[in-house]
Design a protein that fits this description.
Elements (H helix, E strand, L loop, with lengths): L5 H9 L5 E5 L5 H8 L6 E5 L2 H13 L6 E5 L11 E10 H9 L9 E8 L1 H10 L2 E11 L2 E10 L8 H6 L7 H24 L3 H18 L5
Length: 228
């Protein structure tokens, strides 16, 4: 059976397995093959925008003899994907802006589809965008890999558009008692503190600077148990 790294394994854990899963930007199709071999999914659509990754994906699929269960599609995001029967869409390893655009371009995702999202950058922007556009984060998990910390989210369309506070954009639905989440959040707090101090020193936006510093302090206070 194919093995996955920690980040992709966390994505696989959030897949419901209730129907067809679509792995957007599949690259080598490792996740798609894992979903089949583990028995979580009986069918997977693996898509990518470029021919190179699709060729690599095809080789992986043939090696693991999953060619009758994984459909390869060349697609810019979800533009060439027929949403019929798709219950889960995984968008991992991309920047927040790209993920937002892919979701925004696929109206059928609002039909109860489980979104598994793993942004490589600006996770706070993705959280904010999801809520502003009627989506809700159902669950979230932090993963540590090769010295980096990532967040994996499960989200669905609720139709309720709302603005979440700045603290929530940086912490999402992460569990403050989970050790990996603590590490992820502590890194976020450190970054926010540095950004806030830099803004103060440059006298650019004192209000934003103080907000960042206060959020960083609040995160660390909770991690250190002062508010538990």
């Amino acid at each position: 059976m194919i093995s996955l790294d920690t980040r992709l394994l966390a994505c696989a854990d959030f897949v419901s397995g209730k129907g067809i899963a679509c792995d957007v930007g599949t690259d080598h199709a490792y996740l798609a093959v894992y979903l089949i071999e583990s028995g979580k999914c009986s069918q997977v659509i693996a898509s990518d925008i470029n021919d190179g990754p699709l060729d690599f994906a095809r080789r992986t699929i043939e090696k693991h003899e999953c060619y009758d269960k994984i459909k390869l599609v060349k697609s810019d995001g979800l533009k060439e994907i027929d949403g019929n029967g798709v219950t889960d869409v995984i968008i991992a390893g991309m920047g927040a802006e790209t993920i937002c655009k892919i979701i925004d371009d696929a109206e059928w995702l609002k039909n109860g589809v489980n979104l598994v999202l793993q942004p490589m950058t600006k996770a706070h922007n993705l959280r904010e965008w999801l809520y502003l556009n009627g989506f809700e984060i159902i669950s979230e998990k932090a993963v540590l890999e090769y010295g980096f910390a990532y967040s994996v989210m499960s989200a669905r369309y609720s139709g309720i558009r709302k603005k979440i506070d700045s603290f929530k954009t940086y912490t999402g639905e992460l569990d403050f008692t989970d050790e990996q989440s603590k590490t992820y959040l502590a890194l976020q707090a450190r970054r926010l503190k540095l950004e806030g101090e830099a803004l103060l020193n440059a006298s650019v936006d004192d209000a934003l600077a103080m907000e960042k510093i206060e959020i960083a302090k609040e995160i660390m206070d909770i991690i250190e148990g002062e508010k538990l």
